[in-house]
Amino acid sequence: MPSRKTLSVCCFMIATLMFADSKGLLFAQSDATSIVECTETTEFIRVSVRGKPVLVYNKAVQEPPQGIDAIYRRSGYIHPLYSPSGRIVTGDFAPDHAHQHALFGAFVDTSFEGQPIDFWNQHKRTGGVSHDKVIEVQSGDEVGTFTVELLHQAYPVSDQAKPVLRERWTVQVYADTDPGFVLDIRSEITCIADSPLRVNQYHYGGMAIRGNNQWVTAESEKAIRQFVQAKESDPRLALPSLDVAKHQFLTSRGERRFAGNGSHVKWVDLFGRVDGKLCGVAMLSHKDNFRFPQAVRLHPSKPYFCFAPMVDGEFTIEPSETYTASYRYIAHDDSPNAESIEQAWLQFTR
Fold it and tell me: Which of 107, 124, 263, 346 is least surrounded, with the fewest CB atoms within 10 Å of its CB?
C-alpha cells in the first residue's frame, strides 16, 4: 500500500475563444467578460485567454478517423492543447498508437478481482476511461477553473461493465502566460468498487502526453532505428537531429530520449515543429507526488511520454481510498528553455 493515498495532478494552460480552430471548434471572443474564459457546451469545455485558444476538454466521445477501429473512440481527455502562437502541441488517434489520446491518463497493468485489467490499451477490451460528469465551470481574470469526473471501468464494451475508479480532475488555467500557456490538473482517483485495485509493476502508465502527429514519420522512425543499431559500435554517436527525428525530449537532468527513459526527474519537455515552427509541451511533476521523483517513460521512437510511479513497484488502491497526483503542463513556442522550466517547477512546488 503506498504511503500517500492522494495524488495531486496540476497542469496549467492558457487560452481564448474567438475563431474556428483546426477541429472546427468555435472560440468566441466578443462576449467574453473574463481574461480566462471557460465555456461549456454539450460536447466540450473550451478554455481561452485574451482571445487565444488554450485547450479543449472532450466531454463527448470522439470518434476515430476512417481507417482506425472504433474501439479507440474515447472521451475524458484534453485535445487540442495549444501553444501561445496557436499551434497544436498534442496529437490524437495516431495510426501507430491510436489509444494515446493527447493529454490523458490511465493505468495499464492492473489486477482486479483476480483478473488482469488494462485501462490504457483499448484494443484489449478489458478496461477503459470515459468522461462521466461536469462538476463546475468558472471563468476569471487571474484563473479559470473547471472540475470534471471520469469513470474507469472494467470490461467497458460488454454487458459486464463494472465501475472500478472514479477520477476527479480539477483544472486551473492561468492568465499569466510566461513561459507559455500553463495548466494545472489535480487528479483524485478513488476506488469505488468493493474490491481493491492493484497497480502492478510496469514500465509505463499514469498521466501521459502524446505529441502532435506531425512529430513522427516512417522516415523519422527508420532514422532512430538506424541510430540504435549504429550506437552499439559507436557509443559516442549523437542522436539524430530534430529535422530528422521530428521531435526530441529534454528532462530536468538534461537528458534526451534514451538516457532519459526510466530516469527519475522533475520535468520532461517534448518538442518539435508544427507547420514548420518550433513548439512543445513540458510536464512538471509535483514534489509531493507519490514516489517523487517519479520514473518517466520516454518512448524510443514516438512523440509520447508519461510519469509512471509503477516503474518502481506495485501499489494498491483500497476501496474508498483516494490516490492523488499533481502535474503542471506548459505549452510553449520555440525550443524549451530549461532555466525557465526549472523556475516554473520551483514556483509550482513552493
Answer: 346
Q: Number of folded domains in the chain?
A: 1
Q: Give CA–CA dist 349/10, Å, rounded.
A: 10
Look at residues 240, 233, 254 and name the one whose alpha carbon lies nearest to residue 301. 240
- Set of cell numbers at residue 151: 469513470
Cell triple for residue 332? 510553449
Asked whether residue 287 is domain-assigned, the answer is yes
- The domain containing residue 330 runs over which residues? 12-343
> Amino acid identity of 120?
W
CATH classification at residue 25:
2.70.98
Model confidence, pTM: 0.91
Helix (H, G, I), strand (E, B) or coil at 136: strand
**pLDDT per residue as tens digits for the range 223-279:** 999 999 998 899 889 999 999 999 999 999 999 999 999 999 999 999 999 999 999
Q: Is 118 helix (H, G, I), strand (E, B) or coil?
A: coil
| Residues paired with residue 116 on neighbouring β-strands, in sequence order | 111
Instruction: Give which of 23, 8, 35, 14 is closest to 62, Cα–Cα.
Output: 23
Residues 6+ apart with CB under 8 A from 123: 69, 71, 72, 99
